[in-house]
């Protein structure tokens, strides 16, 4: 367990705080809808983030949702791709670029094809992990996006009641 925490801390320390704050500001200031995309477990992380944005009162959707609206100029696409090269995510990003220039990428590879399309890229370093496959990136993504959500909650001056009122209540 200590190795896992240590790896997550190493990635956390590699983040450019100025860039992270720019993304937080961009999310807080966005008046359009939010669209998240990622593949596999990276997709699950961004899907959870879209849910959290809904709790914060934002219109947020995951690209594979069945009730997803059209992407428009003021909307923000948030992509979670450690490689920045995942083909299906790249194709969706190319399509979205026709409708909005507001594209945020969370990645280890700023020089990727998706990175070239993004207006804002947050890079975390690539390290050798003791965990299976891309587990570290998936874990870090959840934590990073939870941090962004918490920061937006505070920056927007929301109350717990406001967030709770937006939370699913048939649990």
Structure characterization notes:
With 171 residues, the chain is α/β, with parallel strands linked by helices. The protein is built from 7 helices and 5 strands, in the order ααβαββαβαβαα. The chain has helices spanning 2-13, 17-29, 40-55, 87-97, 113-117, 135-155, 160-165, and strands at 34-38, 60-62, 76-80, 103-107, 120-123. β4 (103-107), α5 and β5 form a beta-alpha-beta unit. α1 crosses α6, α2 (17-29) crosses α6 and α3 runs parallel beside α6 (135-155). The chain is globular. The two termini are 31 Å apart.
Could you write a compact summary of the structure shown?
It is built from seven helices and five strands.
Coarse morphology: globular
Number of helices: 7
Query: For the report, how would you describe the main beta sheet?
Result: 5 strands, parallel
> How much helicity do the residues have?
40-55%
Quote the beta fraction.
5-15%
Task: Please give a handful of descriptors for the protein shown.
five-stranded parallel beta sheet; single chain; 171 residues; 7 helices; alpha/beta; globular
What's the structural blueprint in terms of helices and strands?
Elements: H1 2-13, H2 17-29, E1 34-38, H3 40-55, E2 60-62, E3 76-80, H4 87-97, E4 103-107, H5 113-117, E5 120-123, H6 135-155, H7 160-165
Parallel strand pairs: 1-2, 1-3, 3-4, 4-5
Helix pairs in contact: 1-6, 2-6, 3-6
């Amino acid at each position: 367990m200590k190795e896992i925490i240590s790896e997550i801390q190493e990635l956390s320390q590699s983040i450019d705080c100025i860039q992270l704050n720019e993304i937080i500001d961009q999310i807080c200031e966005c008046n359009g809808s939010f669209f998240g995309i990622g593949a596999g477990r990276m997709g699950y992380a961004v899907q959870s983030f879209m849910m959290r944005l809904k709790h914060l009162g934002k219109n947020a959707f995951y690209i594979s949702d069945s009730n997803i609206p059209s992407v428009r100029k003021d909307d923000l696409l948030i992509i979670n791709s450690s490689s920045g090269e995942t083909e299906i995510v790249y194709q969706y990003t190319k399509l979205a670029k026709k409708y909005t220039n507001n594209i945020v990428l969370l990645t280890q590879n700023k020089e990727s094809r998706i990175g070239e399309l993004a207006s804002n890229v947050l890079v975390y370093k690539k390290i050798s992990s003791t965990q299976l496959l891309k587990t570290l990136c998936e874990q870090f993504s959840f934590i990073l996006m939870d941090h962004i959500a918490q920061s937006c909650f505070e920056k927007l001056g929301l109350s717990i009641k406001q967030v709770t009122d937006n939370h699913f209540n048939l649990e």
